[in-house]
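Training component of the fellowship. As part of building independent skills, the fellow (R.M.) carried out the full modelling exercise for a liganded target. The chosen ligand was arginine. The inputs are recorded below so that the supervisory panel can assess the work.
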Amino acid sequence: MAKPSHATWGGRFTAGPAELMLQFSESVSFDRRLAPFDIMGSKAHSAMLAHVGLITAKERDAIHAGLDAILVEIEAGRFTWETKLEDVHMNIEQALTKRVPAAAKLHTARSRNDQIATDMRLFFKHACATLAAKIRAAEQALLALAAANRDVLIPGYTHLQRAQPVFLSHHLFAWLEMLDRDRARFGDVAAHANWCPLGSGAIAGTTLPIDREFTAKALGFVDARGRPQVTQNSMDTVADRDLFIEFAGACALFGVHLSRIAEDLILWSSTEFKFVELPDTFCTGSSLMPQKKNPDSCELLRGKSARLQGNLHTLLTLAKGLPLTYNRDLQEDKPPVFDSFDQSALCADVLAGTLAGLTVVRERCAAAVRDPALLATDLADYLVLKGVAFRDAHHAVGAVVRLAEKNNVEINQLSIEDVRTVHVAFGQDWIEVFDLQRALAKREGTGMPGPKQVARQFARWKKLLA
Ligand code: ARG
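Fellow's submitted model of the complex:
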């Protein structure tokens, strides 16, 4: 079983790892997806080594050609990944060494600790850009849905009880605000990722005369003016997992938003509401009940959000008790990050698809929003304009609602005489309050659901998402 170690780190070992230990400690099964970033990092690192004279230009070119060939093989699925080589870094380095003798110099002034930190920062920049683009596409689907149903009114809800009338687009724009914050958050995470770890070594840098800024520039770790950004403390650099947590945090919060949107859609698509009809292409049926059309895409969006929160929790717990600096525990940081990325990407696409195929059931929206009780607050405002204090007005309208309930009629079916028994400030014009269009038109402050404001928001989102 145990044979002398041939591992890259095997010099001081008399026996290699047990088979079970290899299985237990390998990460190549999941970290091989970092290969493009690992190769990018190795190319920049060897370019820097040549720049400072630690390797020759010829050696650099041989390393670059070898790495390029390996990347082609990996992308074509022709590369043989070996579990016994532990991780993506050693698999690529060993394969390179077999082809290019100069590869024995590639790991000069580098450790897997600053190497993995670099790979992951490159990954985060890519992942954040990918998610931001996908969220944007979902936002565009949302805007198109709002535009196609511009004139539709629905009740807005608090406590899941009918509250006040709003344009459907005002509700959809609330979702847009949530999604747009998510998109911005991924931008922030990408900005935090934009610092180059290479040169931190295992923990304490290197005695060799390297040029960290050169590597940072080559990898695009630069500020808006093109100046290189390198991390400022070698120990923090190899120990820090904040970005993992921030990224998973951004995914988890995106998940919370997806879940709330999904919940609205699940309610709206139920027979009880039926404000919307979800696309058949994103629903499934029941194996038993032939009439069923279940809102599975929305339920899964809601369900996946639990998973995204779990990943965040895993990372927080993983990092919390670790002494500085690197500990092998940290290898467990990648599966939750990759899962959060993959699931968030899928969720964004599924949300876009669901929204794109959704139809609004206008009659049902109109029937629901016709409920005159939605304008009870407007009736209190009416009394305020007649000089009644708001608290008294609120009380009086409450009594009007009670009276309507007692008489078994809608509040706007009460007579002027009825309402005047409640408060003398009610005049003949009280009934005009129940004109929905008029009620909406009065809500014209910024952020309110009046038609002028909604038009403004249409223009704003059109510009933001163009
Ligand atoms: N596979 C390792 C990880 O993902 C790379 C860093 C290994 N460093 C070490 N000192 N063993 O964390």
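The panel noted the following from the submitted structure. The chain has a mean pLDDT of 96. Strands lie at 153-158, 161-167, 276-277, 359-360.
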